[in-house]
User: Fold this.
Amino acid sequence: MARTPAARPGTREKRAPQGKPAPRSDQVQSLVRALSIVNRLADADEGATLTDLAQQVGLSASTAHRLLTTLEQERYVHFDPERRLWSVGVQAFIAGNAFVKTRSLVGVARPFMRRLMEDSGETVNLAVEDEAQAIYLAQIECRQMMRGFARPGARVPLHCSGVGKALLTAVRDRDLASILHRHGLPRLTPRTLHTPAALRQDLAEARARGYALDDEEHAVGLRCVAAVVFDESESAIAAVSVLGPMARITDDRIRMLGNLVRQTTDDITAGLGGRAPHSGAPFMLRRG
Assistant:
């Protein structure tokens, strides 16, 4: 059984008045102050002096120095003796990188994908770009007897799939020209866009409205509405789509579905700590 540590000799244990929360311990207060210092250093690209740090966090220089030396022992901060500057240490990077490793795109996206499936009544897909193709990472199937299906791990061309065209909206024109030169525009259905001019016009319209449309271009009888997920640098990293038969994804539902998909990708973007570019601002595809 864990034992409660005894009070130090010569001191009295502080007790909060009944009905009031106990005051912060010295240890908790020191932790909060130390974290404040690390947070300040994270914003100081060139490092910071002891004096500046102490003023910014509202501490005396001696208290700030004591906390800094403790953080330095654990490698959360680093001191440059030549410039007399403190900066973020390697252990802070390691700790922060653990968040990046656990920040699973699929894990963050799945709850929002499920909500989109419920709201739209259609199958929802998540895909990323890889070697000038779209590869499906996850799918939430709808409950309809007749529904679209895309196996996770399957690849589809960028130019004729909803997720692929959404991702292409983030590709610079010279990169698009390179992709088209290497892979061409093979026709999978009679409705597949098979000229660069037609594809560029379609992508321009997709950028303007905020979502892409696969109108029986990848498979006869199926439609797909897709939008882009962004990272913290406003680069496109993935696309989410709703997929279903023409009988249900009718012309009068496309705008509504497009808005639902856009809301979903906005929520996934926020969940990943990303941010969408301002309307009309250029953005880029982060290549896999």
Remarks:
- The chain has a mean pLDDT of 86.
